[in-house]
Amino acid sequence: MGRVTERRKVIRIRDGAVSSRPDTLVAEEPLEIRLNGRPLAITMRTPGDDFALAAGFLVSEGVLGGQGDVQNIVYCAGATEDGSNTYNVVDVRTSPGVTVPDITLERNVYTTSSCGLCGKASLDAVRTTARWGIADTPPVRVTPELLADLPDRLRAAQRVFDRTGGLHAAALFSEEGALLDVREDVGRHNAVDKLVGRALEGGRLPLSRAILLVSGRASFELAQKAVMAGIPVLAAVSAPSSLAVDLAAETGLTLVGFLRGSSMNVYAGEDRVALHRAVARD
Fold this sequence. Notes:
Number of strands: 13
Strand order of the largest sheet: 9-8-10-11-12-13
Largest sheet: 6 strands, mixed
Oligomer: single chain
CATH topology of the domain at 135-272: Cytidine Deaminase, domain 2
CATH architecture of the domain at 135-272: 3-Layer(aba) Sandwich
Helix content: 10-25%
CATH superfamily of the domain at 135-272: Cytidine Deaminase, domain 2
CATH class of the domain at 135-272: Alpha Beta
Shape: flat
């Protein structure tokens, strides 16, 4: 199985002094996801939690919704001409009776570590395939003070980032601020898929009382993944995209961006944020 980090020689220049030394880099390898033996998608990822990544990916595609939907997930032996197992191909077998939509025609087969679910940017598609309505779940209330504390707690849990400086991270917190799970990956959408897949494996979907925090921007695909997992609050340390805001407003997702220190912007779902004073509206 691939390693999370690898060592490479680097020429280091500091104040005019030149030296040679090994450097620790985050590993990046392709993962092919197959569904019932058929190739579905390829994503560039950091090896580790591959089964959870595949399961979480299929939750966001509307294929899986619970533990019982999965018969098994395996690495595919004989993935190369010589029959060796590269641990870069996984096959997800659904349980008998699980309806598998024809999703191969709706999306690109190749996804990079930055683009996420390219080619599938339909608000209607998410609304119609989401298994759990976020607006219908019991209300979750969070304070700005609780949200402001989360990025530092996420950063403290990023063990591989400390060694490489080159990983995105995503974490799930309870509505009281307890850290539930954290995953790192070269792709921010992969980190979220790993979280969601682990929740599916543990029988914890929908995540209707959880807060999802991501280390980068809040793109459409990350908002989509939150909605499909039933997560009511998505917070990001950077900016959201316009389509992410539109999706949040359409589905009832609370979307917070630019979460830095005590400052943040609430773009949608502000009713879940316990504000201390009246908000002026245009």
